[in-house]
Write a structure and sequence with these properties.
Blueprint lengths: L18 E13 L4 E12 L6 E4 L4 E7 L2 E2 L2 E4 L3 E5 L9 E10 L4 E3 L2 E8 L2 E5 L19 E9 L4 E4 L2 E8 L2 E12 L6 E4 L2 E5 L5 E5 L4 H7 L3 H12 L7 E5 L8 E3 L2 E4 L11 H9 L8 E2 L6 H17 L5 H13 L18 H18 L1 H14 L4 E2 L1 H12 L3 H12 L14
Parallel strand pairs: 1-12, 18-19, 19-21, 22-23
Antiparallel strand pairs: 1-2, 2-8, 3-7, 4-5, 4-8, 6-7, 9-10, 10-11, 12-15, 13-16, 14-15, 17-18, 20-21
């Protein structure tokens, strides 16, 4: 497959910049026992240029029929990764359109430079972990992080399984064919953050605003209440520093399987059984995944090269939580991770790490250290004001590093150049600089 010259160079085969998605209505019938998906998707979009064809990302699933604005498509060409739809009549620039697709198959994860991503079978259920390009493993989409849309999900699975998806639960209805669960996402969401989790779960609700709902195996109730019992306090802390929690709900799924790492989704986080010990052993991971609701899920990097805007911020949020709880301070953690960086290779530039290295741990730690350098240079008041302004201004939108520099400069009453002098050695250069030795008042 030829790369799209207008695509993100880190994901050159994904997305189409000639149109933008507005809403996805996904209706999925899934059999856990056989890994069989029978589905339909109605994608509402807007043409950004005149369109004689609509290209969607979809991987490994058979398309049975496509209609555009209620009329059968003139032509449908399917490949391993794409569906190209020719409407009966061209679509003018600026016009909205609706594409309805019926499709089916046995969904499976995609092989990628970052491992297996997308729809994946568990021992007894399903997990969807799609970052960065796994969304087409289960629904047709315009797979770009900067193309956010609203969503509605209706998922039918065998009765006895719980279905968890993004957004607010509208209800569930049991019938002979199984139980149908409906969810709605009213805030714009990136495709890679869309998820469906299926398993035999119990539900535990934790106090707080918003209420925190944990879906977990039945034998883990006590451990879940202990390990996730601090989440409402984390939300309160991050609300003070980052601004109000950006979504209407927060859900957590604990799978019965062990997982290599936890993962974030819009309004959700997913952990494996191995991440819950009933002794707060994974507090750091819980704090990290929660922070992504602000940085990554609400405020989303428009380009994958800027992933430090997700991971550096979430990593620094771990340090803020440790400090808040009376553990190691951000100063102590910053020095510790700086020393670790000095002991390792210094050949990665966070501003453009390369597609294969964008999830390298140095992106996380150097991004966090850049934020700590800003905090030490300009002080807590400026740091907090800048983050709250950034989160509010770009809420449910996309962001670039220049937006961060502008927010700090405005809060500090200085220039963006002065801000970049602080962050540049961490973000734009491969060496390991020192941290500011004095702290602003």
């Amino acid at each position: 497959m030829k790369p799209n010259p207008d695509a993100d160079p880190y994901t050159p085969h994904s997305g189409d910049r000639r149109w933008s998605a507005l809403h996805y209505d996904l209706r999925l019938g899934y059999r856990v026992a056989t890994n069989r998906l029978d589905a339909s998707a109605t994608v509402t979009g807007r043409a950004l240029v005149p369109l004689d064809r609509i290209v969607l990302d979809l991987h490994g699933l058979r398309v049975d029929r496509v209609d555009v604005d209620g009329t059968r498509a003139a032509k449908v060409a399917t490949g391993t990764h794409k569906v190209t739809v020719t409407p009966a009549a061209p679509i003018a620039a600026g016009d909205d359109f609706s594409v309805h697709l019926r499709y089916r198959g046995a969904p499976r994860p995609l092989r990628s430079p970052w491992g297996q991503i997308g729809w994946e079978e568990l021992t007894d259920g399903v997990i969807v972990a799609a970052q960065p390009t796994g969304a087409p493993s289960w629904f047709p989409c315009n797979d770009r992080p900067d193309d956010k849309a609203t969503y509605r999900f209706e998922v039918t699975a065998e009765s006895g399984y719980d279905v968890v998806a993004n957004g607010d639960l509208l209800g569930s209805e049991r019938a002979r064919a199984g139980t149908t669960w409906a969810y709605a996402v009213t805030e714009p969401m990136a495709t890679y953050l869309a998820t469906v989790q299926i398993g035999r779960y119990r539900t535990t609700t934790l106090r707080g605003t918003p209420a925190v709902t944990v879906h977990h195996p039945a034998d883990m109730t006590a451990a879940v209440r202990t390990d996730f019992g601090r989440v409402p306090d984390m939300i309160a802390l991050y609300g003070d520093v980052f601004g109000p929690y950006p979504f209407s709900s927060y859900g957590i799924v604990v799978t019965d399987d062990e997982l290599e790492i936890p993962l974030e989704a819009h309004g959700l986080a997913v952990f494996g059984r191995n991440h819950v010990d009933g002794e707060h052993g994974t507090d750091r991971l819980i704090a990290h995944e929660l922070a992504h609701q602000w940085w990554g899920n609400s405020v989303t990097a428009g380009r994958w090269r800027d992933i430090w805007l997700h991971e550096g911020f979430a990593c620094y949020a771990e340090w803020l939580w440790s400090e808040h709880r009376g553990g190691d301070s951000a100063d102590v953690l910053a020095d510790r991770h700086r020393q670790a960086l000095l002991a390792g290779p210094q050949d990665l530039v966070v501003a453009d790490p390369g597609a294969r290295e964008m999830f390298d741990d140095r992106v996380y730690k150097r991004g966090a250290l850049a934020l700590h350098a800003l905090r030490r240079t300009f002080g807590d008041a400026v740091f907090t004001a800048a983050l709250r302004s950034l989160g509010d201004r770009h809420r449910h939108g996309t962001v670039a590093p220049t937006d961060v520099y502008a927010a700090v400069a405005h809060a500090a009453g200085t220039t963006e150049l002065a801000v970049r002098r602080v962050t540049g050695p961490w973000i734009d250069e491969p060496g390991v600089p020192g941290l500011p030795t004095t702290v602003a008042g």
